Structures are given as structure tokens and as C-alpha cells.
Amino acid sequence: MMDVNEIREYLPHRYPFLLVDRVIELNKGESIVAYKNVTVNEPFFNGHFPDHPVMPGVLIVEAMAQAAGILGFKTMDKKPQDGSIYYFVGSDKLRFKRPVVPGDQLKLEAKVISERRGIWKFDVHASVEGDTVSSATILCADRKV
Fold first, then answer.
1. For the chain, how are helix, strand and coil distributed in percent, rounded to 5?
2. Residue 136: helix, strand or coil by DSSP?
3. Under CATH, to which class is 4-144 assigned?
């Protein structure tokens, strides 16, 4: 549904911090399903951990937040180039269930819980081959740049 070129229109992130490679499903105001392909060439694997590479949990959370950000931007019919930015401002009920390693395809899912005065609440979930990796409730704020 969205390739990386279109994703770049809705997220201000760039290499090495763009963590969404493809969106396969998007229902404005409701939900998104996206993917991050995790390769051994990711720069964070050089230090986390060289002999046992594991994707840092904070980057898994960031990937889920980026997927939620795309959903929010598409729902509002806005883009960063319009002078809007979407900040990740909080998380609750954050859990990690298993590590993410090179070769994994991280499935990112986000569902809108609510939106009030530019503060969006999402239920997010990350999985690999059907196994839950992480889940949380996150908050994002739409602000003018």
C-alpha cells in the first residue's frame, strides 16, 4: 500500500532512523500494519551486541511509534512538509516478550484509541512470525513546527 518513498512523505525521519520499510494496510482513523526488515547491516548492531546482535528495545518502541505516526498523519491528511510534526510523548503498559535479531521481519501494528486536542493515543504491537515482541499504549502529539 505504501512503499518507502511514500512513507518518507509522512515521516520526517531518515537513515539510520527511519524504521518503517513498508505499509501493507491502513484504515484512516483506525489502524495500520507495517513492516521493518531487520538486517545485520543495521548500525546499532555494531554495539548492541557485536557477538550476539539484538535490536534495542527503544528502537522497537520507536518503530511502533513511527507506524502510529504515519496513521496519524494520514488520518489528519497532513504531512511534515505542511509544517506539522508528530512527537512521541509517552508510553504506558510497555512490555517486551522476545528479542529481535538480524533476519527478522518486524510486523508493526497500531490502532487509534482516542484523539483529543492534538494528543493521540494508540495501542501498538510488534511481532515476528506471529510471536509478540513488544506491546504498549503510546501517546503522540501533533504540533506545528
1. 25, 45, 35
2. strand
3. alpha beta
Residues labelled as active-site residues: 48
For the record, the C-alpha cell of 30 comes out as 483506525
Residue 121 to residue 116: CA distance in whole angstroms: 9
* Paired sense of beta strands 31-37 and 84-96, if any: unpaired
List 123's β-bridge partners, or say none.
111, 137
pLDDT, one tens digit per residue, over 30-43 is 999 999 999 999 99
pTM beyond 0.85, yes or no: yes
- In tens, the pLDDT along 44-73 reads 999 999 999 999 999 999 999 999 999 999
46 Cβ contact list (under 8 Å, min separation 6): none
Report yes or no: 113 and 119 within 8 Å, Cβ to Cβ.
Answer: no
